[in-house]
Amino acid sequence: MNLDASLLPSVLAWPLTVAFALVLLPLLLRAPWGLLRENRLESVFISAVGCVGLLWSMGAGVRPGLELHLLGATALTLIFGWRLAIAAGVAALAALSALGFYAWPAFALNGLLLVVVPVAISHWLGRQVYGLFPRHLFIYLFLVAFFGAMATMGAVVVMSAALLWGLGAYPLQVLTHDYLVMLPLIMFPEGFITGMVMTMLVVFRPEWVRTFDDRDYIQGK
User: Fold this and answer.
1) Domains of the chain: residue spans and CATH
2) What pLDDT, in 10s, does the model give residues 65-85?
3) With contact defined as beta carbons under 8 Å apart, do 116 and 86 qualify?
């Protein structure tokens, strides 16, 4: 999921990055930064950025651009809400790009695949579960956190494969045999770790989780 700059047409790389930054800037300015100060979660936010950056730096793969690694986007979305989750993801991606793990010309597409798409999917799935299912702790943990993270990972891997195929970077056979075949191996760990992290947080630090409210999921159950 770390798109190599050599796989992208040079004529598109920097214009896409500039366009991504121009679209992203208003969203970041409107993010509810005050909530971090009010709830004294600045250190939690910075720690989350560091943890996500660490996950993204530990990718493994057989070809450039076909690396797989854990995302952590669902956990970010559930803890901070979608706007601050995007901000945290962009901060992690910028730090990794500055350190040389990711290429700046591919910043826009990597930001789309690693940040915007998974956060959007996680937010949408959370809203659907909240509206369609009974509000119960185990539904939140299993459907929103565990299965939501698995579904998000699956969607991101398939989308990144489709993008590489559309760019002509790899033929479909290579993408299927060297990339998509590993999808089940990465989906379960993503769901398991996200579910475990969210379980610990809602039990010991529910005040850290913006999408979790005791009045909805625990009281009266």
Assistant:
1) 5-217 (1.10.1760.20)
2) 888 999 999 999 999 999 999
3) yes
Q: Say if residues 46 and 80 touch (Cβ distance below 8 Å).
A: no
Q: What is the longest distance spanned by two Cα atoms in the chain?
A: 58
Instruction: Report CA 167 to chain centroid distance, whole Å.
Output: 23
Query: Rounded to 5, what percent of the chain is helix, strand, coil?
Result: 75, 0, 25
In tens, the pLDDT along 16-62 reads: 888 888 888 888 888 999 989 888 899 999 999 999 999 999 887 77
Cβ-Cβ contacts under 8 Å for 53 (sequence gap 6 or more)? 92, 95, 96
Q: How far is CA 187 from CA 15, 36, 80, 104, in A?
A: 32, 30, 22, 27
| CB neighbourhood size of 53 (10 A) | 22
Nearest residue to 84 via CA among 13, 17, 155, 33: 33
* pLDDT in the model for residue 219: 61
> The pTM is what?
0.92
- How far apart are the C-alpha atoms of 8 and 3, rounded to whole Å? 8
What is the reported pLDDT for 220?
53
